[in-house]
Amino acid sequence: AAREAGEISRPPGSMERYNINENDRYWFESLATPQPIGTSLQEITLTGAINRVPKKCYIRATAYEHQYFQAYYDSLKSDSSWKLFDLHCGHIVMADMPVELAEILIDVA
């Protein structure tokens, strides 16, 4: 519908939707910008190059339920080339758990 209407972006989502903590919610909303619709509509080509990446990690924000993120996480459980992490926070991990996120990123670097 957005494409047919000639729209090139969609408004940023509410931080409440992403289950971000209340202390940071309004700050993040003030920084949020429209999302280009092409990021959702343009096809991508997967070449398999990801298999050559030596260190891969997936950080799941468990307080933000999303069927696609969960499905991808579940698909990686049996793949030993991925290191999986669970953090009990909303989608904006850097706001809710910055120390834990930094520790994970250092660990996988």
Describe the structure.
This protein is of the alpha+beta class. It has one domain (9-108). Helix content is 36%, strand content 15%. It has five helices and four strands, in the order βαβαβαβαα. It has a two-stranded antiparallel sheet with strand order 1-2. Strands 3-4 form a two-stranded parallel ribbon. Strand 3, helix 3 and strand 4 (82-87) form a beta-alpha-beta unit. It is globular and about 45 Å long. It starts with 8 loop residues before the first strand and ends with a helix.
Task: Summarize this structure as a short list of keywords or feature phrases.
two-stranded antiparallel sheet, 109 residues, alpha+beta
Short description:
The protein is α+β, with helices and mostly antiparallel strands. The chain contains five helices and four strands, in the order βαβαβαβαα. A two-stranded antiparallel sheet has the order 1-2. It has a two-stranded parallel ribbon with strand order 3-4.
Distance between the termini: 41 Å
Strand order of the largest sheet: 1-2
Estimated share of beta-strand residues = 5-15%
- H/E element sequence: EHEHEHEHH
Q: How would you describe the oligomerization state of the chains in this entry?
A: single chain
Fraction of helical residues: 25-40%
What would the principal axes of the Cα set say about the shape?
Answer: globular
- Mean pLDDT, to the nearest integer, reads 91
Number of strand segments: 4
Total of helices: 5
Biggest β-sheet: count, sense, barrel?
2 strands, antiparallel
pLDDT < 50 stretches: none
How many structural domains in the coordinates? Answer: 1
Structural class: alpha+beta
Please tell me how large the radius of gyration is: 16 Å
